[in-house]
């Protein structure tokens, strides 16, 4: 009986995307809400040896008739301090990270107050991470959680909740 309940729960989690393991670990945006919440910041981030390189950022807003509009906000969201990327967001703002690598396997890891995010990035395939920024202002470090070579320890950046 216990095995049947666990198997049923596992299949339900995969089908609905309700568990963190399946929700954020599968490609094809399986755990990303559709449509995206109003005000979602979408950040395109490339993992290279040995740095996170934010490519650009857009914000999703909806007009009064429900049409989705993507506004470029790169210069307001992405900054660099001492060579490391800072991504600036507002408290409780929805964030979607579209992650890409073209050389080796990386893993995007960030520990948030409401739970960690860990997404593997396979070269040549987009991976997705969707989360709400913490309600507490501060800096939250993201880093590579998959050993990717000699400079692996320098592969980090910051989510700056203002």
Topology:
Layout: H1 2-16, H2 20-25, E1 41-48, E2 51-62, E3 68-72, H3 74-77, E4 78-81, E5 84-89, E6 94-101, E7 106-112, E8 115-121, E9 127-132, E10 138-144, E11 156-161
Parallel strand pairs: 1-6, 5-11
Antiparallel strand pairs: 1-2, 2-3, 4-5, 6-9, 7-8, 7-10, 10-11
Structure characteristics:
single chain; 162 residues; alpha+beta; Immunoglobulin-like; 2 domains; 5-stranded mixed sheet; globular; Cupredoxin; metal-binding; copper; Copper_CuA; CcO_II-like_C
Count of individual beta strands? 11
Strand order of the largest sheet: 4-5-11-10-7-8
Low-confidence runs of at least 5 consecutive residues: 13-26
Order of helices and strands: HHEEEHEEEEEEEE
Mean pLDDT: 81
What is the CA-CA span between the terminal residues? Answer: 49 Å
CATH architecture of the largest domain: Sandwich
| Count of helical regions | 3
Q: Assign the structural class, choosing from mainly alpha, mainly beta, alpha/beta, alpha+beta, or little secondary structure.
A: alpha+beta
Can you tell me the number of structural domains? 2
Task: Give the CATH topology of the largest domain.
Answer: Immunoglobulin-like
CATH class of the largest domain: Mainly Beta
**What percent of residues are in strands?**
over 45%
**Relative helix content:** 10-25%
User: Largest sheet, if any?
Assistant: 6 strands, mixed
Radius of gyration (CA) equals 17 Å
Outline? globular
CATH superfamily of the largest domain: Cupredoxins -  blue copper proteins
